[in-house]
Structure formats: C-alpha cells, structure tokens
Structure to design on (425 residues):
C-alpha cells in the first residue's frame, strides 16, 4: 500500500496503511500480517458518500454549504460537497481522528476556495474528495494519496481527468502552499461545551468540542501547508440561520414538517444513526411502518372527526398534502432500508430496495442519483462488476457524475488487469 505511516499507540514496528475504500489496516514489520486498527477506521469517508446524496453547490440560492447544519445534512440525507465534508470531519472526530478542510488560496491568501477534507495521520494529510465521492488514489494500487504526493506528482491528479472536456480542476502547482481549516462551531469552541463533554462517560461519551488551536499548530507545521486557521463556515452558517428571510423560513419548515407528520420515519432515522436495526424497536421496523401500501395512499381520506375540525372547502387540499407526505415518507424509508441492508451485507435485499422499491417505484424519486450509486456499490460489493460498471458509467447528469464515471473506468482497468493475471498456484 502506498500510504505508510508509523502510528503512536500501535505495536512497535507496525505500519498504518490507508486504503482506497477509506479504511486503514495495520501491518507489522516482521510478519506483514494485516488487521484493522480500531482507532483509525475511516469508514466515515465512503459512509458519508453512500448516505448523503450530493447536491449542486447553488442549492436553493443559499450559497455553498450555507443552508444546513451537519445534523440536518445527516437527517435529510443530502447535501453539497461542503456539507459532506463538514459531516465527514465531525464523524471522524467521534472516532478520535483529526480531519481538516483544505483550501486553495490566491497569491496573497486573501481568497481561499475550499477543496476537500484531509485526514491528519502521522505527519501526512490523506485526501478524500467529497465532490467526486472518492479518495484521491495514491501512486500504488489501493492507497489514498497524501497532499505531499499530489503536490509532487501532477500525474496523480491527471488520473482524475475523464477526458479533455472533463478535467479535474486542480493542478499540482496550486497545492504547493494550501490553507488548512480546523472545524470549530461557536458551541464547539465554548467552555460550557468542554465542561459537558468532560462529564460524559460510558455509552454517552462523545466529542462535543473542537481541537481548535492545538490541531492548527500541529497541521501548520506539515509540508505544503502555508497556514492553518479556524474554518469560518460554522460561523457563517450560524449568522445565516439567525437572519433567515420569510421564504427561507418557510423552506426550512417544509423540510422538517415531514418528520413531524410521520413519527415512525423520525424514530427510524434516529435508530438508523445509532446502528440499531433489528427488532420491534429497530430502525427497520419503523421504516417499514412508514411505507403504507400504495392502495392505502391512493384512497386516503381524512377521518370524519378530523374533517369536522377544518373548513369543508379545504378538506380536498389537506388530503392531497397528506398523500404527498406519505409518498415522500415512503420513498425515504425505502431508500434508507436499502442502505441498512447494504450495511448488513444483505445484498439481495439491498438490490430489491434500491432497484425495485426506489428506482422502479417512482420516475421522480428524490433519491434517483443516490439509489443508482448505491445499487452500483451493491453490485460491486457482491462481485457483479459488469453491472456496477454499467451503472457508474451511465451517470452523465448527477452532481457526482465525474466521480462515478471515474470509478467505472478504474473498475474496468482493475477487471482487465485481473483477467490477465496468471492463475494462483
């Protein structure tokens, strides 16, 4: 593997290997035996991509990343590349991992364009592109590239070009001196949150605070980092949220009202986040309860008691709104059930929920892009590379199209190389 680093807190002589699928393994210098190191499982990378459907930066006219808090991105299951990166940073922090947001600066560093999140591990910055939905591949097969590697080798970045008309928009010369942003929300930098965090123990223990200046000082000493400073995004979002106009407030209410109207969906989502899938009080049961039969939805009428409480002239409109909400809730629950089955490596059921109950069930599903991507990931996981490649390669319109078509090309190359390998003896 190409990403090698000695790790503190690991057996003497061991090497950490960061892999293309986002996880890391550890190998010993003597036997070469590999095993997953419990502290450095970066499943947050591919997990964020699978669970958060990518949206265009100009979503709702709100500007890049200036609409959702990370908990909203997680709840709704969709977000921009910046939303994905922010969530990735916070999920990694819960695993004891430090991730910073890298930015590309102009000559005077007055204007900085966010690029991608980077895992800080033993003196290197490992690169994960949330817009492509892929880690940046390193110089050897299966590894994740570091900032130092791509800054020194333009060809690593050119592997991300699809063709002359679809080039990866970053060159090595722009990476000689980057800005590293440390995430820290107003609450996460406060003393009161540090006090709360210090009192959490056992199953309630979690990270509530930002590493702040301590991480900035450490990252600022790494090669090709011109400056490390606090990421302004959380403060910009906080200010934006505090000054919503009437239309923006209505849009925020429309997003949340589904979860208020469908308690089963809201409860299932919370259990899904906790990894509690099975049983009468598991996420799968609540999601299934949020999937009423189509006949029930089509024939839905308000109860006589409810109809008495509202003006007769509005009954038809209220019923139509309820039908729309039930359909939306069912679409969400179907897609999220597919994600759970994928996590459980129950690939036949994952395929059923992505292909039949999400894609085939509705021509206008809000989850079309994510369902197609996850269907391809499922085929890939079960070894059906031909179907996976077909799905990835056919994506010419989604915000993640560039990354999906790259994945198709790399799978083709991998398949061709495997076909030419001599049989094992």
């Amino acid at each position: 593997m190409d990403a090698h680093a000695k790790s503190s807190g690991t057996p003497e002589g061991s090497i950490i290997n960061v892999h293309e699928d986002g996880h890391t393994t550890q190998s010993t210098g003597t036997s070469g035996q590999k095993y997953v190191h419990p502290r450095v499982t970066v499943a947050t990378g591919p997990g964020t991509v699978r669970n958060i459907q990518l949206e265009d930066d100009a979503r709702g006219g709100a500007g890049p990343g200036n609409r959702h808090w990370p908990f909203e991105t997680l709840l709704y299951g969709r977000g921009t590349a910046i939303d994905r990166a922010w969530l990735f940073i916070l999920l990694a922090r819960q695993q004891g991992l430090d991730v910073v947001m890298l930015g590309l600066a102009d000559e005077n560093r007055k204007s900085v364009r966010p690029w991608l999140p980077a895992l800080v591990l033993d003196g290197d910055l490992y690169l994960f592109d949330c817009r492509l939905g892929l880690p940046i591949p390193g110089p050897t097969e299966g590894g994740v590239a570091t900032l130092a590697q791509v800054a020194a080798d333009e060809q690593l970045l050119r592997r991300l070009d699809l063709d002359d008309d679809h080039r990866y928009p970053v060159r090595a010369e722009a990476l000689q001196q980057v800005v590293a942003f440390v995430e820290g929300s107003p609450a996460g930098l406060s003393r009161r949150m540090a006090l709360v965090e210090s009192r959490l123990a056992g199953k309630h223990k979690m990270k509530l605070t930002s590493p702040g200046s301590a991480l900035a000082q450490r990252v600022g000493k790494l090669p090709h980092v011109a400056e490390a400073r606090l990421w302004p995004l959380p403060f910009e979002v906080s200010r934006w949220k505090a000054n919503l106009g009437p239309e923006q407030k209505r849009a925020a209410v429309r997003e949340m009202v589904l979860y208020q109207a469908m308690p089963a969906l809201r409860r299932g989502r919370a259990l899904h986040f906790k990894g509690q899938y099975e049983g009468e009080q598991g996420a799968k049961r609540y999601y299934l309860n949020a999937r009423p039969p189509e006949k029930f939805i089509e024939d839905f009428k308000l109860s006589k008691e409810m109809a008495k409480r509202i003006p007769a002239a509005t009954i038809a409109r209220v019923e139509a709104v309820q039908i729309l909400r039930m359909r939306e809730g069912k679409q969400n629950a179907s897609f999220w059930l597919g994600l759970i089955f994928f996590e459980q490596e129950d690939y036949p059921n994952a395929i059923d929920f992505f292909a039949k109950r999400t894609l085939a069930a509705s021509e206008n599903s809000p989850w079309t892009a994510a369902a197609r991507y996850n269907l391809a990931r499922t085929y890939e996981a079960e070894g059906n590379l031909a179907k996976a490649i077909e799905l990835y390669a056919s994506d010419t319109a989604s915000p993640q199209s560039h990354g999906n078509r790259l994945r198709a090309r790399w799978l083709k190359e991998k398949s061709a190389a495997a076909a030419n390998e001599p049989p094992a003896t």
